[in-house]
Amino acid sequence: MTAKQLNFTNMRTTLRRNLYNKLDDLMKVTGLEDIVSPGDKVAIKLHFGEEGNTSFIRPIFVRRVVEAVKALGGHPFITDTNTLYVGSRTDAVNHLTTAITHGFDYAVVGAPLIIADGLRGSSGVEVDIPGEHYSKVEIAAGIAQADVLIALTHFKGHEISGFGGALKNLGMGCSTRAGKLDMHSGISPKVKAKLCVGCAQCLRWCAHGAIAVKDKKAKIDKELCAGCGECILSCPEHAIMIQWATGPREMQEKMVEFAMGAMKEKEQKSLFISFITQVSPSCDCASNNDTPVVADIGILAGRDPVAMDQCSIDMVNNAQGLVGSALKSGHEPGGDKFGGVHPNADWRIQLDHAEKLGFGSRVYQLTELE
Ligand code: SF4
Ligand code: SF4
What's the mean pLDDT in 223-235? Predict the structure, then answer.
């Protein structure tokens, strides 16, 4: 397996060389100018953070990436997709409001914000992939139709995938609501009868005629349900529940296959930057972020998302775990940090599956910038 080149900078700075300078250099040595051509629509994919979360990538770093893309003649926009669950980023209106509240505004980042899967998370494009779970996946239109994909990832822990890195940013983060539902559930949502008041609002959102109201209670017909997830948002009583039926292995493998779809035809037009900072034990989709499990490590850049995640987890695991964090074990350098927080979520599954499908390499060569 060929070693993939990755570039890294630690967090040390001087008065003459701050983190912006280091980020600029990272983009340069990783080949930003090879992937952006004048006139390209450049999707800068990141996570704007759920309301209450504060560990998302700072907008001012995003601006630096936007400026570098513009200097090459590209037309950047910053983007994410709506969440499957009901929260502060469930639809484009709330999502944009949350993003702007967190500082992701044109005035700060210098580029427009686009929610890539549209108002309600249903705007997608099907792409063919050579997966084991899927031969086609639905990718958010705003990402599928972009010329270039730059994924800015906050590397942290995750309850189901062990860690959330570049693969998760691509796979879960670039899919439509239907894709997210299939990755997480694989079965139709369920109505919690106790909460349902029989208002029938959900019926008009189901394009497949899968919901009926009888005796003032809605019911979903599993045979007719297409798994689009539209109804989950439609219920004012929050009575329509996702059935979190997929285990860590299936979810991670499916997520990797969606990541392949997100990169389809952009293999030579994509670049990854991971901020291994504020490494919280759980996802930025949570409305909080707990104490980091390790001290800030640095910023990593590369062209292979699999190598990026392998290197990121190696760096986190090689660090000293922080006393007083959520870590229950693995504090010593070399200890499994996320295994110490989420013992039932083996992060190796996503890397194994990606490598098995030939999507990327876990072998890397690391160059540290001055
Ligand atoms: S919208 Fe909600 S409360 Fe109304 S019928 Fe559907 S499930 Fe029941
Ligand atoms: S998931 Fe989609 S197809 Fe299934 S019941 Fe809900 S709206 Fe209808």
Answer: 85
